[in-house]
Amino acid sequence: MSSKKVEPYLMSVLSSRLYSIGLEMTNTLMRTARSQLMSVCHDLSTAICDRNGKVIALAESIPVHCANMGLTVNPCFKHPEGIKEGDLFLNNSPYHGNTHHADYTYIAPVFYKGELMFFAVTKGHQADCGNSIPSTYHPTAKDMYEEGALDWPCIKIQKNYQDIHDIIAIAKQRIRVPEMWYGDYLACVGSSRTGEKRLIEMCEEYGNDIVKDFCDAYQEYGSKRMMEEIKKFPAGHWEYDVTCDEIEGIVPEVTIHIKCDVFPEEGNIVFDLRENRDSLPCGLNMCEATTLASVVTGVLNHITTDIPCNEGAMSHIKVLMREGCIVGKSKMPYSSSLATTNYADRLISGVQALMNQIVVQYGIAEGGAVQCPAVAVVSGVDFRKNYSPYVNQIFCGMTGGPGVLGHDGWVTYQYPVTGGAMNWNSTEVLEQQYPFKVVHEEIMIDTVGAGKYDSAPSCKFVLTPRKEPVTCAYSCDGIKNPPKGACGGFSGHEAGAWKYIIEEGETSRVDLPPFAEPVIEYGEAIVSESSSGGGYGSPLEREPKMVCHRVREGWISKEFAEKVYGVVLDTSKEEYTVDLEKTKKLREKLSLERR
Question: Cα(122)–Cα(348) distance, rounded to whole angstroms?
Answer without folding.
Answer: 23
